[in-house]
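Appendix C reproduces, verbatim, an entry submitted by the partner laboratory led by Prof. M.T., so that reviewers can inspect both the input and the predicted structure.
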Amino acid sequence: MCLFTLIYFLTYKIGCSRNRKQSLEEIAQEAMQQIHSSNYLATLKELGKTEIMLVGVAFDGKEVGCVME
């Protein structure tokens, strides 16, 4: 029996401050779109996992942007 019911699904992207034309939040949103376009979520749902926290993170040095669903 598993005591942990919440699954965290994390995708991260690394931004480059020299050429960055997007905000870190926009880059983190791209990470979130990547999660949604993958088949991993469908597989988890087929296995009966319904409590899934999606996290998209973007890093650039010490700066970070994050979006969650």
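The radius of gyration is 14 Å. Additional entries are available on request from the coordinating office.
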